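tool_call: predict_structure(chain=1)
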Amino acid sequence: MLELVVFSLLNGLVYGLLLFMLSSGLTLIFSMMGVLNFAHASIYMLGAYFAYTISGYLGFWPALVLAPAAAGVIGALIERYGLRHVHRYGHVAELIFTFGLAFLIEEIVQFVWGNSTKDYRIPESLDFPLFTLFETQFPAYKAFMLLISIGIFVFLLVILTRTRIGLIIQAAISHPNMVAMLGHNVPLVFMLVFGVGSALAGLAGVIAGPVLSTFPGMAVVLGTIIWVVVVVGGLGSMTGAFVASLLIGWLQTFAVAFDYSLNDLFALFGGGFGPDHPLTDLWTVTIAQIGPILPFLLLVLVLIFRPTGLFGKRET
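tool_result:
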């Protein structure tokens, strides 16, 4: 039991921080621009495919740098030549634009790389067990994912709260005209922030591609869950996204690990229901079976009792 708890904590931490790596860019974009970017997960997918292609020629480590950079450039171009013209028409126009963009990117990926899953693997330099606990090995690559995710959180927190750039970004959120009169190019700041947010999504794709598989539907797999993370944490809150990512990561991991049903719980107290009971199908449903819907149940509860999210202050 102790082994199950320890490795569930570790695996939940890895998965949660991966969700944070993906949601941090979305959170940064919303906190700065108020844009709900439905194409964010598609940029994450592009990062994985870019890394797969680049690593085939140059190796994993150059891909770790070049793929997020390429995703960031694409994000900046999307803001400059697309969202900037749509932004004036409000949130509905932005949602429609980014929603359509997500489908366009998926079609482009299938056209360029095909429909099959790509053989994008963990680099040999990280393909070994970091340690063995309770006769179970913990991969070095998962530790690498942890370090990258924590590094991103610390970097963004320091940049946004302790530097001049962060002050300009935060001031541009509420007083863009005043920031512009002080000599700062606000549209350029917006474009760069959108590019950085897209680069973070691309970096998540580079890191997650070898673990979660690189295929055209990978944006759909995590696209929904990152919105749950962002809303539960609070729209625009980096700390909220971090906490919500960990909560959801552990929630889903422990749900899979502890595969019990209500009937098992009743049995502990000497109760339980026989196979002929009319509600047998309900009592025998396990936590693992309902694991995929638990984050959405958490989302509903948060929206009922705290509509702005755990750490949110800004409403759309």
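agent: The chain has one domain: 2-305. Proceeding to next step.
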